[in-house]
Amino acid sequence: MRITGTTRLAGIMGWPVTHSRSPLLHGFWLDETGIDGAYLPLPVRPQHIEQALRSLPILGFRGCNLTIPHKRAALSVVDRVEPLARRIGAINTIVIGPDGSIEGRNTDAFGFCENMLDMVPDWNPRAGPAVILGAGGAARAIVAALAGAGVAEIRIVNRTLDRAVSLAHDLSTPKVTISISSWDEVGTALRDAGLLVNATSLGMAGEPALVLDLSSLPPATPVVDIVYVPLETDLLAAARRRGHPVVDGLGMLLHQGRPGFEAWFGAPVRVTSKLRDAILATLAPAQ
Ligand code: NAP
């Protein structure tokens, strides 16, 4: 990479930010496209997020990504929030307009949908209810994605009832029914499901295991785990043994970066096996 006087700038704000794979992801695409651009890690403490975001247009940045702990706080700082990000309740991508205005977007729903198209192109959103484990930030983006894709019934299974209730309240539409189940009821929820998604942190390295009896899940139902460290979670291994189509979490992570890159650097990019391997190599030591 060579920085010139005309290099286009973007980056990722987080605290901490050292764990983020986004600089590698965008660096890969910058190398591949040959664009005169740079994508930087931007360590920003929670109390400085407003100043940091307001500095972007002043410093000539095209935008940035946001990670923990800024995704919700940024909602009240930016000039405009895309309606989808407002419904999800989190911003992960900032785009600076030609007039210097700051727009917040959420690309996790896009990342989830694109990964489904890549990995299970035959999956039919109308095949049956989708069961989503979790009601956190990722689950909210996935529910918005599935509602947009035409899923008519979504069943949320979450430990904390209030969080599931607020998800259902914020993301229900006339076209999608969102119901809530406790973990005790998960076997019943799976019975006629057309999709199962783990959007909890259970099964992630350092977190408790996700122990789930899949025996009531119809055999052709795809099983998605958005946890990506490790890539092959116990849930995916169990689903694979039973013959379910399985989708791991890496593709969603890669696809969610595309809209930001395209907005800041002006070129379309793809998720290829070469990119997947490059990022996978950085995940391997933690597995
Ligand atoms: P979050 O907002 O903190 O939500 C965490 C979810 O996990 C909540 O539903 C929480 O339930 C549940 N949970 C945590 N510990 C639990 C336990 N011991 N028992 C039962 N439920 C438990 O986190 P998030 O941002 O949604 O992320 C969730 C996972 O998705 C993380 O592993 C993250 O790395 C991954 N992720 C992947 C991608 C991708 O692109 N592949 C994108 C975003 C996130 P309560 O509400 O009861 O606390």
Describe the model.
The protein has helices at residues 22-33, 49-59, 83-88, 108-119, 137-149, 161-171, 186-190, 234-241, 250-255, 258-265, 273-283, and strands spanning 8-14, 37-43, 63-66, 80-81, 93-96, 102-105, 130-133, 153-157, 177-181, 195-198, 223-225, 246-247. Helix 4 (108-119) packs across helix 5. By secondary structure, it is α/β, with parallel strands linked by helices. The radius of gyration is 19 Å and the shape is globular. The longest helix has 13 residues, at 137-149. The model has no long low-confidence stretch (mean pLDDT 96). Strand 8 (153-157), helix 6 and strand 9 form a beta-alpha-beta unit. It is built from 11 helices and 12 strands. NADP nicotinamide-adenine-dinucleotide phosphate (NAP) binds at residues 108, 111, 134-139, 158-160, 163, 199-202, 204, 208, 226-228, 249, 252-253, 256.
Defining key terms:
single chain; 287 residues; alpha/beta; six-stranded mixed β-sheet; six-stranded parallel β-sheet; 12 strands; globular; binds NADP nicotinamide-adenine-dinucleotide phosphate
List strands and helices in order, with pairings.
Layout (H helix, E strand, L loop, with lengths): L7 E7 L7 H12 L3 E7 L5 H11 L3 E4 L13 E2 L1 H6 L4 E4 L5 E4 L2 H12 L10 E4 L3 H13 L3 E5 L3 H11 L5 E5 L4 H5 L4 E4 L24 E3 L8 H8 L4 E2 L2 H6 L2 H8 L7 H11 L4
Parallel strand pairs: 1-2, 1-3, 4-6, 7-8, 7-10, 8-9, 10-11, 11-12
Antiparallel strand pairs: 3-5, 5-6
Helix pairs in contact: 4-5
The chain binds NADP nicotinamide-adenine-dinucleotide phosphate (NAP).
The site of NADP nicotinamide-adenine-dinucleotide phosphate has 25 residues, from α4, α5 and α9.
